[in-house]
Amino acid sequence: MMHITMEHIFAHISFTTLSLATLFHWVNPVHRMENLKGLGRKSMTIAFIRTTGFSIIRRVHSEHLPLSNLYESSMFLSWSSSLLHMILGLRNQNDWLGAVTAPGAMLTHGFATLGLPEQMQQSALLVPASQSYWLMMHVSMMLLSYATLLCGSSLAISSLVIPFNGKRNSPISSTDSGLSTRVFFSKTNSHSYTQIESDSRNTFYSLSMNSRKCQLIQQLDRWSYRIISLGFPFLTIGIPSGAVWANEAWGSYWSWDPKETWALITWLIYAIYLHTRMTKGWQGEGPAIVASLGFFLVRIRHLGVNLSGIGLHSYGWSIWK
C-alpha cells in the first residue's frame, strides 16, 4: 500500500505545481514580472520531477511500462507536455509560449488525477495482447506525437483567437495605413489642430498595438509549424509500429479499428498541413485552421475512442467497466 500512497502524493503534488505554473505563466505576460517567470519555470520543473517519480514508482510496482490504460497514458502525456514546455522555455524567451503550453500539461494531468474514477487509476495486469515489447515502441511514439502535435496546434489556435485588424502576415494593416494617411493629409484649420493631434496619437497607438500583435501571431505561427514538424515523425513511426504489433496480436496489420481509422485521418490532416507549408509557403489563417482541426482529431483519438469503450484499443476502459 505504500507505493499507492506515494503515487497519490506525487500525482497530486505535480498537479498542484502545474496549476501554479499555469497561473504564473498567464499573469507574467500582462504584468511583466521576472519573478513570476522564474516561479513558473520552477513550478513546471517540480511538476516534471514529481510526475517522473510517479512513473518510476508505478513501473517498479507493476513490472511493466505505465502505459497500459487511459490513466497511465494521460500521465505520460502530461509528462511529455511538461518536458516539451521546458525545452521551449530554453529555446525561446517569449512569455506567451509558456502561457499556451502550460495549460495543456495541467489539464491533461487534471483529467487523469481528478476526472477518472479511482478504479481506473489502479495498476492492473497487462492483457495478453499488450504483453509485447511493441508496447514501449508503439505507445510511447504515439503519446509523444500527441504531446507535440497538441502543443503545436494549441499555438495555432492561439494565433487565431488574437484580435488583429488587417492581414496576419503583414505587420501593418492597410486599414491602419489608410487611417494615418487621412490624419496627415486631411484639411486643417485653427479649430482642428487639437483633434488632429488626438487622432494622430490614437492612430500611432493603434499601429503600434497592431504591429506587436502581428509579431506575436507570426511567432506563434512559426513555433506551431516547428513543433508540428517535430511531432509528425513520431506519429509516422507510431502508426506502422502499431500495425506490426497488431499483426502479432490479432493476425492482421490493419482492421479499421476506430483508433486506427482516426490515427490515419489525423496523419493525413497533418501531412496536408506540412505539405502546403513546405511546398506552397502557405501561412496565416489557412494552415492555422488545419492545425486546429488536427488538435480536435488528436483529442478524439486519445479520449473519444477510449471513453466510448469500443474497438480493440479500449483495454483501460473495459477493465473499469
Automatic annotation (TrEMBL):
Signal peptide residue numbers:
1-21
GO MF annotation terms = heme binding
GO cellular component term of the entry, any: chloroplast thylakoid membrane
Keywords attached to this entry: Chloroplast, Cytochrome c-type biogenesis, Membrane, Plastid, Signal, Thylakoid, Transmembrane, Transmembrane helix
The cellular location(s) given in this protein's UniProt record come to: Membrane; Plastid, Chloroplast thylakoid membrane
Spell out the InterPro entries in the cross-references: Cyt_c_assembly, Cyt_c_biogenesis_CcsA, Cyt_c_biogenesis_CcsA/CcmC
Q: Where is it chiefly localized?
A: membrane
Presence of keyword Chloroplast = yes
Tell me, in a sentence or two, what this protein's role is.
Answer: Required during biogenesis of c-type cytochromes (cytochrome c6 and cytochrome f) at the step of heme attachment.
Spell out the protein name for this chain. Answer: Cytochrome c biogenesis protein CcsA
UniProt source species: Osmunda japonica
